[in-house]
Amino acid sequence: MAAQRLGKRVLSKLQSPSRARGPGGSPGGLQKRHARVTVKYDRRELQRRLDVEKWIDGQLEELYRGREADMPDEVNIDELLELESEEERSRKIQGLLMSCTNPTEDFIQELLAKLRGLHKQPGLHQPSPSDDGSPSPR
């Protein structure tokens, strides 16, 4: 009797929606994947970058409240870190926020301060939508 209950429990876990497979063996539902960070990247640096990205998202939501359609698609941290001076970074951020009707000076100053503690991660760079693979006209 106990073996039958155990068998049913194991069988029900195997057939649970999170493990179900759709036609052709592809996952039918969302499966939780366990992420692993390799030793190649400093875990603290990655966490710092993630915190800055979350902060940027929250601040942009506040700045563009009611006008979300005008919000920039992204503020690419690596592109900002590639710029040589804070003045260039500030101009780049101002250009991204041109459509914002709320004051942006505090956001820009705080972001510049947060960027001072970050370093460019060459392995994490993802091409932005403006990157088309052609050489830049520098």
UniProtKB/TrEMBL annotation:
<protein>
    <recommendedName>
        <fullName>Protein phosphatase 1 regulatory subunit 14</fullName>
    </recommendedName>
</protein>
<dbReference type="GO" id="GO:0004865">
    <property type="term" value="F:protein serine/threonine phosphatase inhibitor activity"/>
</dbReference>
<comment type="similarity">
    <text>Belongs to the PP1 inhibitor family.</text>
</comment>
<dbReference type="GO" id="GO:0005737">
    <property type="term" value="C:cytoplasm"/>
</dbReference>
<keyword id="KW-0650">Protein phosphatase inhibitor</keyword>
<dbReference type="InterPro" id="IPR036658">
    <property type="entry name" value="CPI-17_sf"/>
</dbReference>
<dbReference type="InterPro" id="IPR008025">
    <property type="entry name" value="CPI-17"/>
</dbReference>
<keyword id="KW-0963">Cytoplasm</keyword>
<dbReference type="Pfam" id="PF05361">
    <property type="entry name" value="PP1_inhibitor"/>
</dbReference>
<feature type="compositionally biased region" description="Low complexity">
    <location>
        <begin position="127"/>
        <end position="138"/>
    </location>
</feature>
<feature type="region of interest" description="Disordered">
    <location>
        <begin position="118"/>
        <end position="138"/>
    </location>
</feature>
<keyword id="KW-0597">Phosphoprotein</keyword>
<comment type="function">
    <text>Inhibitor of PPP1CA. Has over 1000-fold higher inhibitory activity when phosphorylated, creating a molecular switch for regulating the phosphorylation status of PPP1CA substrates and smooth muscle contraction.</text>
</comment>
<feature type="compositionally biased region" description="Basic residues">
    <location>
        <begin position="1"/>
        <end position="11"/>
    </location>
</feature>
<feature type="region of interest" description="Disordered">
    <location>
        <begin position="1"/>
        <end position="37"/>
    </location>
</feature>
